[in-house]
Specification:
The complex is a heterodimer. Chain A is α/β, with parallel strands linked by helices. Helices cover 30% and strands 23% of the residues of chain A. The two termini of chain A are 23 Å apart. The longest helix of chain B has 20 residues, at 282-301. Chain B starts with 13 loop residues before the first helix and ends with a helix. The chains are: A alpha/beta, B alpha/beta.
């Protein structure tokens, strides 16, 4: 038996090629060899996908693998396994590690560890914009690019200095690298720990105004517009932010943007009871923001769904809300939450969701995958979209069990994840 | 009483509040008597766990415990130990193991008492958490008002000062609105939290509007650091617009009460001439405080299983 796989009888959804039909997919030598009806192949491994959906593997534009330096939260091994569990075949890991991924040596470390010890999921490191994420001097973008970064970001922190942003945009463009911006005005955040609104008033928790995010989104757009350069905006959470991107796109600014499953699946009233698993930055917003993020995905304002997978140790969450770490472990709930809140709730088709989680991220990043074209890498996810799943964080593959979705019921299971023709995760 | 904890007045019914206030009237006889000793809490152990400085609240709880023969102990942890020291959950579990019946907690972070209560067997009383709630203060305020005004239904209570950062304000809003009172807030716009009206109170544009026809004019402490953080430009300008003065109190009803949870910043949120006037019941609030806390401790330790 060679290493070929015949994925038989699934509903194949490949938005890039406009395919949505019950077909077989034959994988040979790590690539898609054939897609069609009634395929026959002798002596190959057969994966029965009857009643399942076969789609290009998900690509996460935004996650934290915590390696190097915070392996007690997650490392490249556990993180890539968790990604595979969630149906991801590629992930972009943010540079806020210890040390920061601001030089080629760290980039090479991440890639080598992913290559030798990872689950098989492609890891695309994101380099820092500034050395040490300090927002002062530009990091060695050219050398990091040569080592293998996919983009740059100071994620976790904004690039507060507008001129540094402008210069980095110009400079990075020379190397074919674009900026992923964590848009946040720290002076407007102040000591805030949750969305500012009725719930923050009721709970007596310091609030974070939406303007903290929107002011910087507006600035990022204006700088990109003035320079004619490209910018990608991370983890949008507000109605106003979505509108700013919509208007910018309409006038031709080279801006793209993502939101996350938690901004379309949770709102600030979840903080009632002070559950620190609801602490995340940007904070969970209100229903009108949630609906605006959904609308943004539907009308194309928002290009992608990224997880912002941010695993933390239990000890960092079992404390007062104010001092709890910010972030949600997101790989393993991304599909079920997004599918339930977008497809089952009637806002988009499953094909459109796959576009947001696979096709578009691949295109924005310029990486292989995101399609089931003949000759493309066999990076594939097999899904059971209508299966009821109750989230059990204690069973997460990720070291981070921090999720506000724990115990809640959604629809959508990941049955198998295939990278380069190899089944790397199977339920 | 059925509840294990008192974390706030949000969601506490009119009947429960009335029950506590009625019991407090009885307890006040003890506070006023020459032999301040009853056996209500004999064999019970009560710990105050304070992560913030406090004189009156902690002393009030401690005396309430001692007047009723409880074993009372105090733990003072600096605010710095919140981030650096033992976790709150670990401290709580330790106190539980020592047989503590009631933990009274004050903490600079909203929600800390809720976190503690979820992890301990002991009853938890919130003695003030961040900007969230300070339920026993509101209970003692309501006890004082009820006694002087005969009831709480339909009265107008003007609360003036730093509403944004005030746990006293939130507890009073919850408690008073539950009891049928009308709560009117007045403060610089920078010291009013968003959509506070949705809690069932009103916002008065000027302090004169707030005081007009009020039954109670209550001041809230203005910390000087709020000015340094840029929330208002100067104490002088604050006083011009929002200080509780006898002239402003004169706009209220004739019998109106002047109240303040203390500690007061005289000459900032309240003029001495108002605080020390015949209408002021500020010192009686302190007496009510001991009585309310006695009632609450007694009721929580006798809760139905």
């Amino acid at each position: 038996m060679d290493n070929s796989i015949l994925i038989r009888g699934g509903r194949v959804i490949d938005p890039k090629n406009g395919v949505d039909a019950v077909l077989d997919v034959l994988v040979r030598d790590g690539k898609i060899a054939q897609v069609g009806e009634g395929l026959q192949a002798e002596g190959v491994q057969v994966l029965d996908a009857a009643g399942r959906v076969v789609a290009p593997g998900f690509i996460d534009m935004h996650c934290h693998l915590r390696d190097p330096g915070q392996e007690y939260k997650e490392d490249i091994v556990s993180g890539t396994r968790a990604a595979a569990r969630g149906g991801f075949t590629g992930v972009c890991c943010m540079p806020n590690t210890h040390p920061v991924n601001d030089c080629a040596a760290v980039t090479r470390y991440i890639l080598e560890k992913a290559q030798t010890q990872g689950s098989g999921v492609h890891v695309y490191p994101v380099g820092a914009v500034s050395k040490g994420l300090e927002g002062k001097e530009m990091a060695e973008i050219g050398r990091m690019k040569q080592a293998g970064i996919i983009a740059i970001s100071d994620d976790g922190r904004p690039v507060t200095n507008s001129n540094l942003l402008r210069l980095a945009m110009q400079y990075a463009d020379h190397f074919g690298v674009f900026i992923m911006s964590h848009s946040e005005d720290k002076s407007l955040v102040g000591d805030g720990v949750m969305n500012e609104g009725f719930i923050s008033t009721k709970l007596g928790l310091p609030g974070i105004t939406r303007a903290a995010e929107e002011v910087m989104i507006a600035r990022d757009i204006l700088v990109a517009e003035a320079e004619g350069k490209r910018i990608h905006l991370c983890h949008l959470s507000t109605k106003g932010g979505v509108q700013l991107v919509r208007e910018a796109k309409a006038r031709g600014v080279r801006v793209t943007a993502e939101t996350t499953p938690h901004y379309i699946g949770a709102t600030d009233d979840w903080v009632i009871g002070y559950d620190s698993n609801c602490r995340v930055n940007p904070p969970l917003r209100e229903e009108e923001d949630r609906l605006a993020c959904i609308q943004g995905l539907v009308d194309g304002t928002l290009d992608a769904i990224a997880t912002d997978h941010a695993p933390h140790h239990m000890d960092e969450k079992r404390v007062e809300f104010h001092i709890a770490a910010s972030g949600i472990s997101g790989f393993e709930t991304a599909f079920c939450v997004s599918h339930t809140k977008l497809v089952r709730d009637g806002y988009m088709t499953l094909s459109q969701l796959i576009e947001k989680m696979s096709t578009n991220p691949a295109r924005l990043l310029g990486v292989p995958g995101g399609e089931l074209s003949v000759g493309a890498p066999a990076d594939i996810v097999v899904l059971d979209p209508d299966r009821e799943v109750t989230v059990d964080a204690s069973q997460f593959v990720s070291r981070g069990h921090n999720t506000p979705f724990d115990g809640r019921t959604y629809y959508g299971a990941v049955c198998a994840t295939i990278v380069g023709g190899r089944v790397i995760d199977r339920e | 009483m059925k509840r294990k904890d008192l974390l706030g007045l949000d969601g506490v019914s009119r009947e429960e509040i009335t029950g506590i206030l009625d019991a407090a009237m009885t307890m006040r006889q003890v506070v006023r008597s020459s032999n301040k000793k009853t056996a209500h809490l004999q064999g019970k152990s009560i710990v105050t766990l304070f992560y913030e400085n406090s004189t009156r609240t902690r002393m009030s709880f401690e005396l309430a415990s001692k007047y009723m023969s409880a074993a009372a102990a105090n733990i003072s942890a600096g605010a710095s130990s919140v981030a650096k020291g033992e976790t709150l959950i670990d401290t709580g579990v330790t106190l539980d193991q020592m047989g503590t019946d009631v933990i009274i907690i004050r903490h600079p972070m909203s929600g800390a008492p809720a976190l503690l209560a979820r992890h301990v067997r002991a009853s938890v009383i919130n003695a003030g958490d961040g900007m969230n709630e300070h339920p026993t203060q509101a209970l003692l305020d309501m006890m004082t008002m009820r006694e002087h005004l005969g009831g709480l239904d339909g009265i107008k209570v003007a609360i003036c000062g730093d509403v944004m950062h005030s746990r006293v304000a939130r507890s009073n809003i919850y408690g008073l609105t539950t009891m049928g009172a009308n709560v009117v807030l007045c403060a610089p716009p920078t010291l009013i939290p968003p959509r506070i009206e949705a809690l069932g109170c009103y916002f008065a544009p000027t302090i004169e509007d707030a005081c007009e026809g009020a039954d109670v004019v209550m001041g809230l402490r203005i910390q000087r650091e709020r000015q340094q953080k840029g929330l208002f430009p100067s104490v002088a300008e604050y006083c011009d617009n929002w200080e509780i003065t006898p002239e402003r109190v004169a706009l209220a009803k004739k019998h109106a009460l002047v109240m303040h949870p203390g500690p007061m910043n005289r000459g900032v949120e309240i003029a001495s001439s108002a605080a020390d006037s015949s209408q002021s019941v500020i010192s009686q609030q302190v007496e009510s405080g001991v009585a309310v806390r006695m009632a609450l401790l007694y009721m929580l330790t006798r809760r139905e299983a």
